Amino acid sequence: MSVRAPGTPPESSTAAIRHLAERGYEATTAEALAAAVGMSRSTFFRRFGSKDDVVFADHDLALARLEAALEDTALSPVDALVTATTDVLRLLLRDPEAARLRFELMRLTPALRDRELVITHRYERVFTRYIREVQQPATPAWVASTLGASLVAAHNAALRAWLRGRIADAAAALTDDLRDLTGLYRPWLENTGDRTERRVLVAVYDAAGSPESVLDAVSERLHR
Predict the structure, then answer these.
(1) How many folded domains does the chain comprise?
(2) Is the whole model's pTM more than 0.90, yes or no?
């Protein structure tokens, strides 16, 4: 996993992405990119790795934090998924200019869109693995992968709505959407008490007793 080295200023990534957007991804060499952000070629490769890694550095960081958050959380499964997914969005939007430039670059560059698909599948795998670990017994096999993909889809929809100016507070909108989404899966994620335990009651009664007395006796036993 390629993660921007600790201490690398976020503005370095923004400057690099801006340069790629202005000059064109294919037309820009790694050496030119290093010069544009004021780094030597060796320092650039040590901190970023490649042109692709510059564009996706925040995604790599978000994935690492997502895995760590889900591996060590005291929250309920539903709250953990909502919180962790929203935190990913907050990280990707912490620099609005970089977020918009990244989106424009990927729109114009097929190679970056291919890399984005790989990143998307990585998010889905992290979510799916966590869901399988916490889901209730007898949960259908399709639940984990379906919910994992749905979380990513909801995140991406909120991100694109923000990028296109349709919503102002992307994190709040996403949180609301995720509450609705995870609510559909709650019975499989948490013991909500919706599943009623079945009990078998064997009743022994006096054949001479009235039907009402037999029913009263059975009712009394069931409510113990």
Answers:
(1) 1
(2) no
